[in-house]
Automatic annotation (TrEMBL):
Upper taxonomic lineage: Eukaryota, Fungi, Dikarya, Ascomycota, Pezizomycotina
Domain DUF7587: 2-144
Stored Pfam families: DUF7587 (PF24494)
Protein name: DUF7587 domain-containing protein
Length: 151
């Protein structure tokens, strides 16, 4: 069961983009994955593996979010300290996502573990709070925006 709210951290260099009135889009909106096929030859396996690899330069069909505002704020602070520009946190109301209309999202850690994918040590703690959306987060679900500055 998804939490009532998820949080997306974005900065000027983020690959997933917010488009006003449309929502948040993954960089790759063309790849088709089947969440029922989790074997090592599946497109889901390879695309999720690439998504979890911070060094990968492949466009991802997934958009990372966090179920914890605390974790999202910590990530926003990390980005600000790293010199990232235009750091923002979007609040997403999962009740407005309309799963019946094609919005798909999953908790990363159990999905990766079920598929036998390794999550890097430095990302493992955050991964229990990470949820990925497939391709798109509808605008109606993006209910709040908060800018973030160096404190």
């Amino acid at each position: 069961m998804a939490p009532p709210n998820l949080y997306r951290v974005i900065d000027k260099s983020s690959r997933a983009r917010y488009i006003p009135g449309k929502g948040i889009y993954a960089e790759d909106t063309d790849t088709i994955v089947d969440f029922q096929k989790t074997h090592k030859r599946s497109t889901l396996y390879w695309r999720l593996r690439d998504h979890l690899d911070w060094a990968s330069d492949k466009a991802s069909p997934f958009i990372s979010t966090y179920s914890s505002l605390f974790v999202a704020e910590r990530e926003a602070r990390r980005r600000v300290r790293a010199g990232k520009e235009d750091v923002r946190i979007y609040k997403i109301d999962t009740g407005k996502c309309g799963r019946f209309k094609g919005t798909v999202y999953r908790n990363v850690q159990p999905l990766a573990e079920r598929m036998g994918l390794w999550i890097e040590d430095e990302a493992y703690n955050n991964s229990k709070y990470e949820w990925i959306f497939y391709r798109h987060i509808p605008a109606r679900a993006v209910v709040e925006l908060r800018g973030w500055r160096h404190e």
